[in-house]
Design a protein that fits this description.
Helices cover about 30% and strands about 20% of the residues. By secondary structure, the chain is of the alpha/beta class.
């Protein structure tokens, strides 16, 4: 997609605040500091529209980015940051669950993992959660500019085996620095945009 017009619509904490345009939405999930903001900025050709938090785990809202008046990227609070209190984790955990399981215009989820390391228990749990609800998932291994190209196959294999990805779950190696994987991510997003509205059980 050629992106010229993008803006942040709202940082929401409740369904009553969610946009009502009816446009398809793509959620981005991942551990704190895994690179969700960097991926978003690369996809929309901006340097700093999606801001990286200086304090991991600080973002506790669903941030809706309006793209070309036809799509929303939804930045979901990062998971797995221990310094966030249990009460706060529970509160925005419930918000995330409600969004992922009840939002009818949600077309798919991009789950980011750190391509330099094996996925964590939190990464595995999130993937299993998304699979349980039959949500279409694209797994994106970030920060691949820090990995030698000769190690790409090993990184991909480690992610697939550790997370026990289903054969139908696509995996893209990505670097915000070099642009590696950007087109592949967009291809998946555009394909998801064409799907009819998902029914919710």
């Amino acid at each position: 997609m050629l992106v010229n017009d993008v803006s942040i619509r709202i940082s929401a904490v409740a369904p009553s605040q969610y946009p009502t345009d009816g446009w398809p939405e793509i959620a981005l999930v991942g551990r704190s500091n895994v690179g969700k903001s960097s991926l978003t900025n690369k996809l929309i050709n901006r340097k700093a529209l999606a801001r990286t938090s200086s304090a991991p785990g600080k973002t506790q809202t669903l941030n809706f980015y309006e793209v070309e008046h036809q799509l929303f990227f939804v930045d979901v609070p990062g998971y797995g940051y221990a310094k966030v209190s249990k009460a706060k984790r529970a509160a925005f955990g419930a918000m995330i669950e409600a969004y992922l399981t009840e939002r009818s215009v949600l077309r798919g989820v991009v789950q980011l993992v750190d391509g330099r390391h094996a996925p964590t228990a939190d990464d595995i749990a999130m993937y299993q959660y998304l699979a349980y609800y039959h949500l279409p998932v694209l797994v994106v291994a970030t920060k691949m500019d820090k990995v030698k190209p000769s190690q790409y196959n090993r990184s991909e294999s480690a992610v697939r085996k550790t997370m026990t990805l289903s054969p139908g779950t696509p995996l893209v190696l990505f670097s915000a620095e070099t642009g590696l994987g950007k087109d592949a991510v967009w291809e998946w997003i555009e394909a998801r945009m064409q799907d009819p509205e998902r029914s919710r059980a």
